Amino acid sequence: MAKVGIFFGTDTGNTRKVAKTIATKLGDAADKPVNINKASVDDLLAYDVLIVGSPTYGEGELPGMSAGHDNESWEEFLPTLVGADFTGKTVAIYGLGDQEGYPGNFVDAVGFLYDAFADAGATIVGMTSSEGYTFKKSKALLGDQFVGLVLDEDNQKELSEGRLSAWLDSISSAWA
């Protein structure tokens, strides 16, 4: 059984809470979640299976210094992936966004993570349907599917638990 590494970026703590929930649900299959601002590329490469998460801030921004955060996050980390080889690694992505407040760039950060890890050679798993969401545009879409799990804790919090559980079930073969 492969050990799952969980890495997240956050400012308000909501993405960290989801990471902790994922770790609890996975039990012994997962290591303790790590904030990406405390990780290196080598830390990620130590795992065969990764679950990575990010909120989307403002007008489609990754969390980080230019988004007005006090600490570095995905914005500063993603450039360090350039040249890294994630071939043979499996990555599942989750993201938080606000489809009503930001319908023109809903969960764009999920798309940024997808592009970065796919460009580094990772196999991406965990696509989910865009049905049940109302938004205009998202960089996280590939056809009519999101490239990962999408949670809207602002407008659809009551759906998050079911969406998360179904998603984890759908990707569980990655670490079994």
TrEMBL record:
Residues 4-172 form the Flavodoxin-like domain. Its cofactor is FMN. It holds the Pfam family Flavodoxin_1. Gene3D superfamilies: 3.40.50.360. Keywords: Electron transport, Flavoprotein, FMN, Nitrogen fixation, Transport. InterPro entries: Flavdoxin-like (IPR001094), Flavodoxin (IPR050619), Flavodoxin/NO_synth (IPR008254), Flavodoxin_CS (IPR001226), Flavodoxin_lc (IPR010086), Flavoprotein-like_sf (IPR029039). PROSITE patterns: FLAVODOXIN, FLAVODOXIN_LIKE. SUPFAM superfamilies: Flavoproteins. GO terms for molecular function: electron transfer activity; FMN binding. The keyword Electron transport applies. It comes from the Bacteria. Belongs to the flavodoxin family. Low-potential electron donor to a number of redox enzymes. PANTHER family: FLAVODOXIN 1 (PTHR42809:SF1), FLAVODOXIN 2 (PTHR42809). This is Flavodoxin. The lineage of its organism: Bacteria, Pseudomonadati, Pseudomonadota, Gammaproteobacteria, Methylococcales.
